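Late entry, evening session. Most of the bench is empty. Finally got around to the prediction I had been postponing all week. Sequence below, unchanged from the version circulated by S.P.
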Amino acid sequence: MRHITFFVTYWMAFVSASLCLAQGLLVNTSADKQVRLPRPGVPSETTYQIEKLDVHVRLMDRVARVQVSQTFKNTGSLPLEAAFVFPLPYDGAIDRLTLLIDGKEQPARLLPADEARRLYEAIVRKNRDPALLEWMGTGMYKTSVFPLPPGATRTVTLRYTQICRMDRGMIDFLFPLSTAKYTAGPLGELTLDVSIEASQPIKNVYSPTYSLDIDRPDARHATMKYMGNHILPQGDFRLMFDVGAGALGTSVLSYRPEAEEDGYLLLLASPSIEAADAATVGKTIVFVVDRSGSMSGKKIEQAKGALKFVLNHLHEDDLFNIVAYDSEVESFRDELQRYGKQTRAAALAFVDGLVAGGSTNIDAALQTAMAQLSDTSRPSYVVFLIDCLPTVGQRSEAKIVDAARKANQVRARLFAFGVGYDVNSRLLDKLVRANFGRSQYVRPEENIEDRVSRLYREIQSPALTGVTVEFQFDEDESEESPARPEAVYRVYPRGDFDLFQGEQIVIAARYRRAGSAKIIIRGRLGAEEKTYEFAAELAAHSKDDRLAFVEKIWATRRIGEIIDEIDLHGENDELVHELVELSTRHGILTSYTSFLADDGTDLSAVNDNARRARGNLKSLEMAAGAGGFAQRQSKARLQSEAQAPAAASYRDEKDQVVQIQTVRHAGGKTFYRRKGRWVDSAVPDKPRQTVTQIAQFSDAYFALAKKYGPRAARYLAFDEPVVFSLDGQIFRVEPPRR
């Protein structure tokens, strides 16, 4: 019978997301021949699959109580003798660890870090498989051997308690979900349940790796759930939250990998669950709906459903109106109406009477809507829905945009919905840029009512409007201080914004000066001006890459902004070169820079690559059609991205996700596969300094892993040859000569 050691590893809140994987590892420890861990699509004598993974996390302030159950199936033809091994986190802060196999508790033995490291190293040397290097340097718990017959399953359950890391005022919990590396096939079923119970009001709840729907039933509780089937999770789950009293909660995360270069920051801001004065801020909303002939049938019915949803969820202090347009423009009332039972009933009857027919007069519809807005003390919103091009009245993009901008005397925010592929998507993007809003695009198969209702749920309760953010440093207050460049710059989203109850804004920016800073947030609560001040500490130099996602999120948004500038105002050489440089460095590719993934592309040929990107960017000239639709939708996603990319991909001209196999993210670095070798994007094509060459699995190889620990382990764990930089040195790791 074959003897196998069964490794199951879990990262808790202390280790960087790329260090461990939430899955079992079957490692041959006694057979004479080499047996590598399984990879998807790669034959291996060690074959198993994770059928189910259930993760339940209860966070009580900094204490995490976790239960994890995994069901493994032996997909091979031979029986396995397995032991369960659990490497400890680097901080070793686990308490009350219980291991159960098929519901029966198993005794576990603690292996100190040195003994565990020797075991890991021995397995890596013997099987010529670098994967286990990721866990060197930790202690471990180990169970006795148990059998796993062919076709049989075993459910392994862990229960433990742990103290989470506190980082820059935020409680930080991470659980790895990257099961794709060492399993024979996709994860069958994944369930992730997380609840937070805090002794003080919860301020920000943020995941840099997963987009989550977060339910906050009251000020001290939050829940979130993620479910998936037959998936290969590309990134680990990380959750950060903070607590504290106050009407507005802010947190700042800063990352500066190179002390001589400018840093990156994320500012999280969210209002309290209830408004500061326990009153709802009245708003003005005008719904501008297309009823032209192209809206007939299903579209007009969905649009009417969206209108009814909004009308049924307005507040008593709200003012509203409806503008319906085709060739002609008709308003529900000549002026804004105060919401109440009678006006609601009349408005619903008006909606029921809408019939699609006629041409499309966009300019007149917007002019009619803007003319009704005159009160600058109330937040005002225009929800604009259109499914085709302007066909009557003013048809010039520039003139329609300029007229709407001039008519908007109250800084109303315009939210535009382009329905279907016949919309001039560039016109909509220009309109929202000029009117402080954003655009969304509804595919032919998508439901208009669902998309509009989701937007309204976001904006129905303004908490703070016209919000601006200012960073002040001590030097700024000195009159003798010479003029300096702006300390914090390229802030996204640009301009002012509104904060709504239950919403959290994520601001990305770069900073030139490190140290203590004061954040000043100004806005309006109704007609009242509000000012909030917070202290922040911006890192002078980050010693590890735990916050590397901050840089990636900023770079993603900057790429979106560059594409937007080129789209709306035309290309220039400086923007195109910056687009290529950012895409190359961070591995954030688009349909305009997808050629960087080609094995034959020379990453150092900046001018040639800029020329190729410039040619691809000409597709932005498509204002309508599926191609134009997809490009604007993709651009909007980049501009608002709040999670760091876990896997390299881009969206093509059909807005379909294309996974890239020749680009990989590891820690804070991007690697490109070139001629069978993974190359760090930070390493020049012809480096000036000496390159240290190391044979894989040699004594020097393991010495490097021991010296740098987790910082180097994630790169040394690559299957193929790899080139990377670390602390100013360049290393090239090659397979041993045969």
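Two things to note before I forget:
The longest strand covers residues 48-60.
Residues 1-24 have pLDDT under 50 and may be disordered.
Will write this up properly tomorrow.
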